[in-house]
Amino acid sequence: xxxxxxxxxxxxxxxxxxxxxxxxxxxxxxxxxxxxxxxxxxxxxxxxxxxxxxxxxxxxxxxxxxxxxxxxxxxxxxxxxxxxxxxxxxxxxxxxxxxxxxxxxxxxxxxxxxxxxxxxxxxxxxxxxxxxxxxxxxxxxxxxxxxxxxxxxxxxxxxxxxxxxxxxxxxxxxxxxxxxxxxxxxxxxxxxxxxxxxxxxxxxxxxxxxxxxxxxxxxxxxxxxxxxxxxxxxxxxxxxxxxxxxxxxxxxxxxxxxxxxxxxxxxxxxxxxxxxxxxxxxxxxxxxxxxxxxxxxxxxxxxxxxxxxxxxxxxxxxxxxxxxxxxxxxxxxxxxxxxxxxxxxxxxxxxxxxxxxxxxxxxxxxxx
Length: 368
Fold this sequence. Notes:
The chain is of the alpha+beta class. It is 33% helix and 20% strand.
């Protein structure tokens, strides 16, 4: 695995050198972990002229979920725990005779940027931009394996919940139970705050669970995800509670299911991101739900739950193979509820069987 991280750093160094910069300072935690195998609290990565260093405020945590730093990457631990690793790294870059330093301006605060500049005034600072984020878009098979295991954990947690008694329990209680089950099955923790929405709340994107209790006849929509070795996946499903679904519930569910299927089928290497969004969106738009649709049909996942690419109407760029994304259309009708169906998939060429579905919990409209 050390070779994997060394290759990632080498690719970034090629980008930095091509831009005419001698060294780079990576501060965004997900980017540090991508390049160094671990991102201890407050750690930064220095791509130096002569040596790469993982600069830490204290000794790295030994917990497996936090990752272990690449053994071929030298650690530099600050003498004081309250020191700023980014500021220290800038001084180390100057000590390696660098005359310029690329920094992640989108992550550094103004105050921190000034501190980095002041510790080594002869260093010219340049913006690294989203160079590391772009490297992270296409995943290797080890990364995809972590996502696959995370998806299996999320499927297990959701499947067990569906076998329990739901009527009378609160959204908040069900969300907490799901997060406990994720950890029980081996997740580092939830990939994001679990959403459980019932009745008039169902189908609402990003709904925060409340003390509303599940009632007979409700739509129940659940969105959860597991983090495994730092990698985050996502699944969302909608069910009906207690009784056979009403006609309007069946019609709305079938419509969202058709939109989600259209979006999934549009995933292919070379497909424009906006075309994937359009495939799902036009199904719901043509049925009169244009005003009820979320701004995005989906997004990339990995070390963060919301990565590039973005699948939206104004999205730029095309999909590559081995890019994991969500497809998650939904419709929420104020006062009535709604439907959301959400899967994590990996873009694969047709010769390899097309999109690989990681989250496999049934999408049949179940009455629980």
